[in-house]
Each structure stands twice: as C-alpha cells, then as structure tokens.
Amino acid sequence: MPSNPLLSIKDYGQSIWMDNLTRDLIQTGELQQLLETRGIRGLTSNPAIFEKAISGNALYNADIEAGIKAGKPVYKIYESLIFEDIRNACDIFRSVYEESGGLDGYVSIEVPPTIAHDTEATIKEARRYYQEIGRENVMIKIPGTSSGLPAVEQVISEGINVNVTLLFAVQSYEECAWAYIRGLETRVKNGQDISKLASVASFFLSRIDIKVDQMIEDKIKSVGTDDLNMKAQLQAIKGKVAIANAKIAYEKYNEIIQTDRWKALAQKGANVQRLLWASTSTKDPTYSDVMYVDQLIGQDTVNTLPPTTIEACAEHCDVSNRLETGIEEAHNLMESLKKPDININIDQVMAEVLDEGIDKFIQPYQSLMSSMEEKVKQLSPV
C-alpha cells in the first residue's frame, strides 16, 4: 500500500488540522478515526461551519428542547450546543494534546463575529468562552483586526490560548506576532508561567487569489489583444499571489524568532506562535486542489484543511519542504504588482478581503441565529 502523504507532513514540522466540526462527526466516531487514519492533530470551527452543522440537523433537537424547558434565551441555547460539541472534540483531541506536550490537539472556537471591531466585548467573550468550555486544549479565535489585536494581547496575558484569525497582510501578521509577544511579556513581568500557552496566527490564502485573479481577468478583458506583453505579465501572476504572500510572512516569522525579545521568552519556556494556513481549499478548478498544501509545508506551521482537501491530500499531495524556497521570486512577484501594466494595489486588496472575511462570518452567524429562533418556535410546547 502506498503511504499516505498526510502522515508524512508531520516529519517536516507541520501539523494538519481540520476545518470542520459537526455532532455527527463526534457521535459516529469519524472524528476519532480521522485522528488515526489521516493524522489530524487539531480542529477549527467558525460560524459558517456551525450554521451547516446545526441547520436542519435533528441531532440537536433534544438539547434545544432542554434549553427551551430551562427558559434559556435563543443565543444561550445556541451556545449550549456549540460548547458541548467543542468540549467533546477537545476530549477526543486530548491524547494528541498530551502526546505533543501542548503543541497540538487544539479545538478552536470563534467569539461572535458581530463584535470583531469591539475590543472590550472581544476580551469579555474570550474569557467567558474559555471558562465555560473548561478545557485546556480549547483555543479562542479572535479576528486580527485593529480592534482584535489588543484583545489578543490581553487574553494571552491572562493565560488563554488564542487563534488569531482573518490575517491577510504581512504587516497584520507582524502586528499579531508582537501582540502575542507583549502578552507573554506581561505574564513574565507578573511572575506567571508561559510554557503552557499556545497561539496560532491564521493566514488566509485562497480568498486573496480569488480577489486578485478577478482583477487580472478584468484587466485582460479590457486589454483584449492590443497588448500581448501586458496580457502575458498579468497571466504570469494568476494564482500565485497568496502563496508568495504566505512565504514572505513566514520569512518575517523567522526574523521575529531571532530577536532578543523572543529569545528571552523562549528561555522561559514560551512556545512559538505558529503560522497557520487557512482558507486552503482551491476555488479555481484549473488549479491543483492541493496547491495551498504542497507549496507551504515547513517547520513550525499548521495547515487547516476542509474535509475534501484532506482526502485530496491523502491521495496525491507531493510532500516536500517548499516554504523557504523561492523567497526572492515571492518578493519580486509582490513588487511586480506595482508595475504600470499590472497596477494592483495589494494593500487595498488586503483591506477588502479582511472586510469581506468578517462579513462571511457575520452572515452565517446571523442566519444561524434566525434559524435557531425558528427551530425554538417549532420545538416549543404549545
């Protein structure tokens, strides 16, 4: 039997987490099986995932009815459902958490996306989620917005594991890394342990390429056949910006862990804040369905894959350490976006995909709350 490429990725210092969670996965034993057969070492969730999991799924009805009988408001019933799933997933991953010494085995849950721009509300909810879920290996997801990063620093200083999500620009990642470092430094100053804390910085990929590729297509259409050189320059960068951007972010990560500030924390047992590659399913069918896996395997990283990408990778990933190759080319590609013939403002692109990313979590969250209200009405005694 040929070896499963997924299982060999760990040898390169990268962990594979899954971007999915449903009660079915837990109760059927499928999640446990994925740990064993696919080498899954962690799990992430988000409002869109919970909307798919809960809407129209009778598995949750008994707990919803119990919440109704207890007189809970709709949002509390919703939280009781997802907190239960997160706790059970944490228990399944507990063996990975212990075996890895707290490196892996985490299950991520996001604070409500509606508070992405409210620092104090984010801090309050992160604390509450962490306390109510009550598992060492839960990781609270906080958006890497200008309002979210002060919250990251604060909750890290309080000993809460954090998954900083919705990072797109390298500068945003750098600010996220320093927020983590400042949070750890506060704990050290207060005489508190930092060796048990974990954090990942979730760097989004496919959404960048979707946005840039559409801009390229629009430019190519406007050029037509009048300027073949310009058309060739535009075609040359299609589907390459997200990976180039990720490689530059990883280069920045390596610079940060060489600083004196980081080394001082490492001597006290601090764990690195690993870069996590998110949004890794390929949306363009002309691209490889594992392009965001093959090109970004490297030390001290995580790749979080949806189920379809997990299976595709198990079948045909080409595993090799490519994350630190082609760095000069990555810089040149990003610089080429400024050329008059290409003229793509990457800073504007990053700002737009961040705003859209928040909306893509708010919309399913609001939709789920609406469907929860409807379900509560249906299941309530007359």
UniProtKB/TrEMBL annotation:
Enzyme Commission identifier(s): 2.2.1.2
Xref: Pfam families: TAL_FSA
Coiled coil, from the record: none
Reactions catalysed: D-sedoheptulose 7-phosphate + D-glyceraldehyde 3-phosphate = D-erythrose 4-phosphate + beta-D-fructose 6-phosphate
Gene3D superfamilies, per database record: Aldolase class I
Keywords: Cytoplasm, Pentose shunt, Schiff base, Transferase
Residues the record marks as active site: 141 (schiff-base intermediate with substrate)
Listed pathway(s): Carbohydrate degradation; pentose phosphate pathway; D-glyceraldehyde 3-phosphate and beta-D-fructose 6-phosphate from D-ribose 5-phosphate and D-xylulose 5-phosphate (non-oxidative stage): step 2/3
Top-level division of the source organism's lineage: Bacteria
Gene Ontology biological-process annotations: carbohydrate metabolic process; pentose-phosphate shunt
PROSITE patterns recorded: TRANSALDOLASE_2
MF terms in GO: transaldolase activity
Compartment(s): Cytoplasm
One of the record's GO cellular component terms: cytoplasm
UniProt function note: Transaldolase is important for the balance of metabolites in the pentose-phosphate pathway.
Family named by the database record: Belongs to the transaldolase family. Type 2 subfamily.
NCBIfam families: PRK03343.1, tal_mycobact
Protein name, as recorded: Transaldolase
The organism of origin for this protein: Cyanomargarita calcarea GSE-NOS-MK-12-04C
Lineage of the species this protein comes from: Bacteria, Bacillati, Cyanobacteriota, Cyanophyceae, Nostocales
Chain's gene name: tal
